[in-house]
Specification:
- By secondary structure, the chain is of the alpha/beta class.
- It contains 19 helices and 16 strands.
- The strands form 3 sheets. The protein has an 8-stranded mixed beta sheet, with helices on both faces. Strands 13-12-11-14-15-16 form a 6-stranded parallel beta sheet. The chain has a two-stranded antiparallel sheet with strand order 5-6.
- The C terminus is likely disordered.
- The structure holds uridine-5'-diphosphate-xylopyranose (UDX).
Length: about 500
């Protein structure tokens, strides 16, 4: 099928590369001439596993091309996907990019084309697009809403092996056109160049892929509801982490126990530094704004947002309580991207932490496997190191801000040896506390039992004593079958 994709960002490029991978001829259009040239030269503008390979195959097969002029990309297309950003003004969505794309469609689309909106937009946007297009063209065009559920780092697999496809539409035939394009995905019959990117999904996905045809408003709300629910789940576990800290409980074990209940499920229950990235922060605000302007008070969303804002302060709070004064301290920050396997730093907790620390006159040296440059003004105040050891040399604390898989195997003894104070603040609970303590670190995780305490004189000591922790032997069993306290393998007797 002839397809056009407007927008060569994260969603648009993954969408275009995957659609070309399953056999369609795809023209990508973007107003950013530099990006279009870069793509035409064979460069991939950001890190996304599988994308570079799929773009390469698409170019080689001649099924993928890149354009700046909508007149070159849109006229032959049977489906036109709008995948442009929706920015925000506080809690209001800024639809200017969506409106510009819809206007290009109005001018250049064929009469039998179907416009597919994949940009996350407030409820009612599809209706607005339909009206705009009709006014500009002088005739109607079929439009559908097809929200994307692509998470960075797994976006290619999310597109090719989705857990569901949601289509909001007024016209049945427009749905059929989109279903025809998605057929290999819906049936799980992917051609060879794409099949390899969904390995590992077999156990979790359903074939045929569940297809939900809804009213446009429902599809639009579903996207916000999905992201909001995941964000609430994360804020919930972060609140449990704060409670766990007070009582000497371990939130990771709480998560494991919760996740084994199929009504809850194991995903998005990892306590950490709070949610970031390009979607959750803005989607939660826009959904809240949408609700409030219609007279609904979105109390759960407000609370989730508040918990998230507090969670961003966790690192500075733990540094303060352990180092007492932060003036003139040196902090090694490991991880800058908002999550692993991406070089995306939009709303990354690490950047907010770096900014707070710099304002407090702390010297920050950072290392990230994929991010080697920071935007202004942080580029002038945060040093970028070539590796974790270089970042940690002379540091008073090592802060892990992103759970890159390789950080689980950090050479802890070597890091400890080059640091001034052996304090490890693990903002993602991705370091084994026993390994860290064995290497001589004072280990502080998120909700992992209050954390070790650095002695007042700041000297390194492996002896860890939780502020609120009771002697396990003094605890009275709640039930005869339950041993008093928790067995501990920690030589210092503190457990986790
Ligand atoms: C999200 C949605 O998952 C995706 O479906 C949507 O279309 C776009 O937004 P993304 O922003 O790429 O994707 O990241 P995601 O993996 O969802 O993580 C969001 C944030 O939550 C990250 O900051 C991550 O670190 C944090 N997170 C995630 C946690 O803190 N704990 C968890 O257990 C999971």
């Amino acid at each position: 099928m002839e397809i056009a994709v407007i927008g060569a960002g994260h969603v648009g490029l993954v969408c275009a590369a995957c659609l070309a991978g399953i056999g369609h001829r795809v023209r990508v259009q973007d107003i950013d001439g530099d990006r279009v040239e870069e793509l035409a030269r064979g460069e991939t503008p950001f890190l996304e596993p599988g994308l570079d390979e799929l773009l390469g195959e698409g170019r080689k097969s001649g099924r993928l091309s890149f354009h700046t002029d909508p007149a070159d990309a849109l006229p032959d297309a049977k489906l036109i996907f709008i995948c442009v950003p929706t920015w925000t003004n506080g809690d209001t969505a800024d639809l200017s990019a969506v409106v510009a794309a819809a206007s290009a469609v109005a001018k250049h689309a064929a009469d039998d084309a179907v416009l597919v909106n994949r940009s996350t937009s407030p409820v009612g946007t599809l209706e607005y697009i339909r009206t705009l297009v009709e006014e500009e063209r002088g005739s109607a065009l079929d439009v559908v809403s097809n929200p994307e559920f692509l998470a960075e780092g797994t976006a290619v697999a999310d597109f090719l092996a989705p857990y569901r496809i949601v289509i909001g539409a007024w016209e049945e035939w427009a749905v059929e056109r989109l279903v025809e394009a998605y057929r290999p995905i819906l049936d799980g019959l992917l051609p060879e160049p794409t099949r390899r990117w969904v390995k590992g999904r077999e156990a979790t996905r359903t074939i045929p892929v569940p297809l939900l045809i809804t009213a446009p408003e429902t599809a639009e709300l579903t996207k916000y509801a999905a992201n909001a629910f995941l964000a609430v789940k994360i804020s919930f576990i972060n609140e449990m982490a704060t409670i766990a800290d007070r009582f000497g409980a371990d939130v990771d074990e709480v998560s494991t126990a919760l996740g084994l209940d199929p009504r809850i499920g194991p995903h998005f229950l990892a306590a950490g530094l709070g949610w970031g990235g390009s979607c959750f922060p803005k989607d939660i605000l826009v959904l809240k704004g949408m609700a409030e302007t219609s007279g609904v008070s979105a109390r759960i969303l407000s609370a989730a947002n508040e918990v998230n804002t507090d969670q961003r302060r966790w690192v500075v709070h733990k540094l303060r309580s352990n180092l007492k004064t932060l003036l003139g301290r040196r902090v090694a920050l490991l991880g800058l991207s908002f999550k692993p396997n991406t070089d995306d730093i939009r709303n990354a907790p690490a950047l907010e932490i770096a900014d707070d620390l710099v304002r407090l006159n702390v010297h920050v040296r950072a290392f990230d496997p994929a991010v080697t440059r920071l935007p202004a003004p942080l580029d002038g105040s945060v040093e970028i190191a070539a590796d974790p050891i270089a970042a940690a040399t002379g540091a008073d604390a090592l802060v892990v801000a992103t759970e890159w898989p390789q950080f689980a195997d950090l050479p802890l003894a070597e890091l400890r040896a080059v640091m001034r104070v052996p304090l490890l603040i693990d903002g993602r609970n991705c370091i084994d506390p026993d390994r860290a303590r064995a290497a001589g670190f004072i280990y502080v995780g998120v909700g992992r039992g209050g954390g070790d305490v650095l002695p007042i004189n700041g000297r390194a000591s492996g002896a860890a004593t939780g502020e609120s922790r009771q002697d396990p032997a003094s605890l009275t069993p709640m039930h005869p079958a339950m041993p008093a306290g928790r067995p501990t393998t920690d030589p210092a007797g503190a457990g986790r």
